[in-house]
Amino acid sequence: MGDGGFEPELRKVEDWLLAILRFAVTREQTDRAAILAVAADMDRLGAPVVRCGFTFFVKTSIEICDLIVSGHSSQDKAVLLRHLGKIENDRLRRALEVALELPRFDRTSVRTRDQHNGDLWRGLPCRH
Questions:
Q1: pLDDT averaged over the chain?
Q2: Which pLDDT does position 113 carry in this prediction?
Q3: CA distance linking residue 82 with residue 94, whole number of Å
Q4: Which residue in 7, 18, 60, 124 has a CA-CA distance of 20 to 30 Å to 75?
Q5: How far apart (Å, rounded) are the C-alpha atoms in residues 86 and 27?
């Protein structure tokens, strides 16, 4: 977290992820409420007044919490893995994988957008 300008925001994201980890372990409603409180704070971060339209973290938190509680289907696990794949902190991501009994996320198997675009025109006829 070398960039001092983003450090408070990065810390908020880390606090949010730690709250999710705690809920994944305890499944307590008080821990779920703590996630939503941090998420609501993040949604209004930097806004001089409450932005009623921006609810990304609250919506994502509700989805993740619902999946944690009922996420036993392969589709639920796939959505959780998609969310976990966005976590850059390896230790935190692995802790969540263990708490949620999910397979370990393999970053090497993820193709970046640039790698994928190399095949964009493959198979199309050439235009002369």
A1: 82
A2: 47
A3: 14
A4: 18
A5: 22
List the chain domain ranges: 7-117
Q: Which residues contact 31 (CB under 8 A, 6 or more apart)?
A: 19, 22, 23
End-to-end CA distance of the chain: 51
Does residue 15 contact residue 38 with C-beta atoms inside 8 Å?
Answer: yes
Which residue would you say has higher pLDDT here, 16 or 104?
Answer: 16
Entry pTM? 0.73
In sequence order, what E strands does the chain have? Answer: none
Element (H, E) at 68: helix 56-70
How far is 41 from 116, CA to CA, in rounded Å?
A: 36
